[in-house]
Amino acid sequence: MGTNIFELNENGDYQIVGYIKSDEEVNKETTAKIREKYSPEDEAKLNRIANALPKAQVPQEFVEYNTYAETCRAEGRAKKQANADELATLDQVEIGEGAMKHFIFTR
For residue 31, is pLDDT > 90? Predict the structure, then answer.
């Protein structure tokens, strides 16, 4: 689960104004994007073929798959870094009392 971002409204109450996805959520999105084009079976097949051949003989189909998958992974890493950078700019505020005490992130 990611992180909700809160701001104080005109009534002095905190309201959710944004959301930062967790690394796990970004990973799931990245996998889903790869799955839009390649099934797990397709990936396994292409990797088996590529691993069995000398590098110079790897089929173009594997090169295309690998380029796509690595592009998706790079986009996922960039999203995770952007999320971490945004999280670092937020203030952590303690709210509530006793057993209800917890922290929220605000801009």
Answer: yes
How far apart are the C-alpha atoms of 69 and 66, rounded to whole Å? 5
Indicate left, alpha or beta for 95 from its phi (over 0: left) and psi (-120 to 50: alpha).
beta
- Calpha distance 86→53 (Å, rounded): 44
Q: Rounded mean pLDDT of the chain?
A: 95
Tell me the two tokens of residue 8: 């104080």
Parallel/antiparallel/unpaired status of strands 14-20 and 3-8: antiparallel
Q: Are 14 and 6 in contact (CB under 8 A)?
A: yes
E strands of the chain, at which residues?
Answer: 3-8, 14-20, 91-95, 102-106
Q: Is 69 helix (H, G, I), strand (E, B) or coil?
A: helix
